[in-house]
Amino acid sequence: MLPKLPVLDSWISTGAPTSFVEAVLSLGKARCSAYVCFANVHMVVEAQHDASFRRVLEHAAIVAPDGSPVAAAVGWFNRGKRQARVAGMDLMPQLLAAAAERGQSVYFYGTTEPVLTAMVERARRELPTLRVVGTHSPPFRQLTPEEDAAEVAAINAADPDLLFVALGCPRQERWMAVHQGRIRACMLGVGQAFPVYAGLERRLPTWARQLWLEWAYRLWLEPRRLGKRYLVTNTQFVYMMVRRSLAMLAGRPVPRTPAFSYSVPAPESEHIVL
User: Fold this and answer.
1) Count of structural domains, the chain
2) CA-to-CA distance for 203 and 221, rounded, in angstroms?
3) Which residues contact 35 (CB under 8 A, 6 or more apart)?
4) Which of 71, 85, 162, 180 has the greatest count of CB atoms below 10 A from its CB?
5) Residue 170, helix vs strand vs coil
6) How far, rounded to the nearest angstrom, does the alpha carbon of residue 41 sit from its chain's CA centroid?
7) Half-sphere exposure of 51 (CA within 13 A, CB side)
8) What is the DSSP pairing of strand 10-13 with strand 4-7?
9) Spatial distance between the Cα atoms of 152 and 130, rounded to a whole number of angstroms
10) Within a domain: residue 235?
11) What predicted TM-score, i.e. pTM, was given to this entire model?
12) Which InterPro entries does the entry mention (predicted)?
């Protein structure tokens, strides 16, 4: 898998965006029951406060630097290593195109039926060879054990290589961790990438994203839902960055090896469950 470097107490995967595409497709081809997280500031701060969520990130096969501040922090804490942002909104279309080219199948899980319908329509229009083997919009509540078992069975019966999950952070990350070993696919928590891919939500131009303004745009779109998250967690992230930087200047050691290392096992059968 891709090498990981520390950002505060989270371990972030590094490499060129194309290497992330290849790594995810490798997991899908091997039918590993693995999951991929896309770490933004909110996720890194959540991991600082919650040890159980930090373990969720540690056991992810890939933790992509979804947010520009997270990508920049990779270099800040690791001797100036340059790391490009690898956002779920950007990587998902690339993965779908690559999956269509290589004959890998996909399944969309989460969000609402109108969003899923719009996504499938776009995929069929732009990627006619892409095999979309299923979609499902679960209820916005905790599932019963029987409901969860039925959904897992339905996903495995559809037999996707890649399972894209949009349940919101941190719910989707915890969901993937709980279902590792139960779902025979590479799961990717891409959240807001669903409505963007569906064409129901616009993104800022590239130049604005390069100026780290995407969070402000989303805050403008959803002030009630995202106000506390962005204003509080962004402030906490800056505070934690300054505090950790001062500790490093004072000679405090930073861990250099992740607590958990993930590698793709050699396929011995059609499906692999870790």
Assistant:
1) 1
2) 11
3) 60, 61, 173, 176, 177, 180, 186, 187, 188, 189
4) 162
5) coil
6) 13
7) 1
8) antiparallel
9) 22
10) no
11) 0.87
12) WecG_TagA_CpsF
